[in-house]
Amino acid sequence: MAVADQPSEQIEVRTTHNINTNNQFFVWREFLWGGIAGAFGEGMMHPIDTIKTRVQSQIILSAHENQKSILQMVRSVWVTDGLKGFYRGVGPGVTGSLATGATYFGVIESIKKWIEESHPSLGGHWAHFIAGALGDTLGSFIYVPCEVMKQRMQVQGTRKFWSSLVMKESALINPGIDMYGYYSGMFHAGCSIWKEQGPKGLYAGYWSTLARDVPFAGLMVTFYEALKDVTQYGKQKWFPNSNYHVNSTLEGLLLGGLAGGLSAYLTTPLDVIKTRLQVQGATLRYKGWLDAVQRIWMIEGARGMFRGSIPRIIWYVPASALTFMAVEFLRENFNGKLDNREVEEVANLPLKEKGSSLVS
């Protein structure tokens, strides 16, 4: 039995409402843009991250030797491993950053849209902080195992270098207990850690990672949004009648770099603790997070807590700049095209549905 035709206006309004509800609430594109941007930033800046990891972990691996400076560490990596040494662990690094970038930006934009649509009174910098922290926490289930594999591969260097170091340190520090073996790649690293230590090994330092990344993620998006507000305020105050438009890609590059660098410095002590807990392997130097804090502070003082802060900032300023730049670029150049395509589909619906009937 045929039912009366529905007016094309009703079909158009209903379809438009469904499309807008989908895109505005879940903002699926932000997950894609965030993943691409996160992987891009990590891949570009991985060599600096390798230096930071080695500087922070050298007291565990070479406790009897003088600690190297940043320039000495760069030279050491180049002499022993060559260019390849700077890119050890890039596979798990990019994988982890892809996952975290996707959840970070996806959750932030989804929560921002939800607040704007349903709870405008909850807006502000606290909402940005919570959204960033939640997005990063969701990505941690993939990011932390990748981080463990990445950092262990970063400190190993060449097979010859790692074998000689393990033999020397085993004899000096704890005879009879071997450190983990050499990893030929990401898959080998994951399988070896699982076989030797189980899930506990892959998630080594999980809580210390969250203790570092939750504040960092929250601070970074808060600083970024605050800097955007300051930029907008300055433009309105000093150039009220100007039609000059700041390119969002350039804005992401500059403000993202500032936000990332400031957040990175403030969370450096948390990064030192996390790195040492993850690098130590089965030969435990630290019994846990609090033990690491106490021992680092007592033995090395404030300098130890902020060890590696310079390469960390050097890494995060351009990495954050590139990540936010990439996200803003993708938003600016692709979101509009996707929206236009959806509008065209809606516009064509009345023509396709005209004269059609719904059959019960």
Automatic annotation (TrEMBL):
Entry keyword annotation includes Ribosomal protein: no
Main location: membrane
Any Pfam family the entry gives: Mito_carr
The keyword Lipoprotein is assigned to this record: no
Subcellular localization: Membrane
Cellular component terms per the entry's GO annotation: membrane
Similarity remark: Belongs to the mitochondrial carrier (TC 2.A.29) family.
Protein name: Mitochondrial carrier protein
Higher taxonomy: Eukaryota, Viridiplantae, Streptophyta, Embryophyta, Tracheophyta
